[in-house]
Amino acid sequence: MAGTSKTSNGRTTGATIGTLSKIDAYGFKRGEDFDYKSYENFESEYLAVLARRMKRWNEKVLDNGQAKSVKHRRMVKRFCRKGIPERHRPMVWMDVSGARKKMQKEPEKYQKLLSSDPDTLEDRLVQDAINTDLDRTFPDNIHFQVATAENQKKQLNNILIAYGRHRPEIGYCQGMNYITALLLIVVKDEEKCFWLLSVLIDTILPQYYSKMMTALRAELNVLTEIVGTKYPNIQRVMDSEGIPWMLVASKWFICLYIDILPIETVLRIWDCLFYEGSKVLFRVALFLIKDKETVIKECNGMPDIIESFKNLKTDDRALECHQFIHDCFIETNPLPKAEIKKLRTKHVALVEEEDRKLAAKREAR
Amino acid sequence: MAAQRATNNAAQGKICQFKLVLLGESAVGKSSLVLRFVKGQFHEYQESTIGAAFLTQTVCLQDTTVKFEIWDTAGQERYHSLAPMYYRGAQAAIVVYDITNQDTFARAKTWVRELQRQASPNIVIALAGNKADLANKRMVDHEEAAAYSEENGLLFMETSAKTAMHVNEIFLAIAEKLPKNEGGTNRPRPEVDITQSNPPGGSKGCCSSH
Ligand SMILES: Nc1nc2c(ncn2[C@@H]2O[C@H](COP(=O)(O)OP(=O)(O)OP(=O)(O)O)[C@@H](O)[C@H]2O)c(=O)[nH]1
Ligand SMILES: [Mg+2]
């Protein structure tokens, strides 16, 4: 990927204000409604933040400023919340998530998965499904554009196929394509991306992508319950309008905020996700919901509420990622891990119970 | 805009809003049909839908304005478990298959069956045989799908999101067939005064049926 990305990188050359490209630092085309003015304002400040963070990382976390590994200290959590410098992101994600350990433990695994040819119907179906999505993954991103991105597409294809073989009971779930593609854009190393994807799906996230998507459905019920506790006024409106959070937020969890929030904000969320786990997904969801409290209360029916969550990618507040993450943690504290664990267990059981009843009803017919 | 809406409102009397859901295998062109209907656009490479996307569009009939609240769902098999959330309370559904792919037609039939059993009893179902522009790769007979639709009381059209063929027509046919009196049974607010509701971002407002 490095070879083809010759575009101006807004981050490294970003000192010059007023020359914002139509394509962002990660290769995404900026939308027609992209507000260049307010982004410039934000970026001029954010660049200073980034420079300061870089310095702090070099001093405190990295081995002599050698970006080889993270010295695991208690401060790393705080450092991840404040943002991992772009240059160190691949290494830090590999480290703090445990992906590097996994990779070192089974150094040949990825190549073996790729070269194995199970020749089963299941494997062929997975391959077909992935193939259908290759041209439909970030078609507007220069790294994945159909005409020029053969190499990246091949890597995307390889990682997804390997993952499907690694966990045949999961195979391929739409959404994994976007996550993998963004990993490739940031990390630029096929094998590392495979391991980051596995550590995400196998250990960090609940089993969202399984065949029945039970954990995902449960997750949205957990969200409902937490909103009910933290923001009862909001939940009351949602209940009276008959809007399950599923309608608003399923993609938030499946795509880990890709295509929901501005790209820089997504990466800042992932910085936390890889270090401290999936709780941050709830934090962001709660924060987004709380931010719309007025809109929800004054809304005029379901369409209004759904629409109000649609333009977060160009929302000023969401764009200012540094402040966003900061405010997000403050707003959503406290959010005890144990509580979430309890709620997840409860709601997974409830969803499974529902499924069983439904299946029994079908059989009875 | 508001004035125009008000006039329309006065001239045409009734405004109904209906919930419509699109179902069907992945990559048959659900999102493309909606994009064509709502924005008049087509993308050669349309991103796969995750969860579901919500859009609105308004069409005008003789004496009624119909506002569609459209749920465009994800097609992959495993997303099936989320689908009831989206078709619950829907007054209309478009079940889409790809005329170049027999499997997608079989899948469409299972969606029809599920809707007939689980969705609102009076739901209006349309079957869309999409990608009709690819006639040289056709794998599903027009007659077969027409006969199946006839048997099951479905509206049926072959469509092309790419060329726009029958796209507005299928939505209009649904709008015609929907009962305007009650404006749908399950809605808490079947009729709204459109002068008071914000025109949604994507919609071109009333009578944008090209
Ligand atoms: N030739 C042709 N191609 C079409 C037509 N409609 C859609 N396509 C193409 O088919 C592919 C899939 O279309 P989508 O609209 O994304 O399909 P979908 O049903 O929404 O798929 P999911 O979101 O994955 O469920 C895209 O690359 C479209 O460009 C059509 O009428 N003719
Ligand atoms: Mg779609």
TrEMBL record, chain A:
Organism taxonomic ancestry: Eukaryota, Metazoa, Chordata, Tunicata, Ascidiacea
Molecular-function GO terms, alphabetical: GTPase activator activity; small GTPase binding
Function statement: May act as a GTPase-activating protein for Rab family protein(s).
Protein name stated in the entry: Growth hormone-regulated TBC protein 1
Membrane-traversing stretches: none
GN (gene name): Grtp1
Pfam families for the chain: RabGAP-TBC (PF00566)
Organism: Phallusia mammillata
Rab-GAP TBC domain segment(s): 83-277
SMART domains: TBC
Keywords: GTPase activation
UniProtKB/TrEMBL annotation, chain B:
Example of a GO biological process term: protein transport
Keyword line: Endosome, GTP-binding, Hydrolase, Lipoprotein, Nucleotide-binding, Prenylation, Protein transport, Transport
Gene name of the encoded protein: Rab5b
Cellular component aspect of the GO annotation: early endosome membrane
InterPro entries cross-referenced by the UniProt entry: P-loop_NTPase, Small_GTP-bd, Small_GTPase
Organism: Phallusia mammillata
Entry protein name: small monomeric GTPase
Classification of source organism: Eukaryota, Metazoa, Chordata, Tunicata, Ascidiacea
CDD domains: Rab5_related (cd01860)
Family of the protein in this entry: Belongs to the small GTPase superfamily. Rab family.
Biased composition (Polar residues): 194-210
Domain of life: Eukaryota
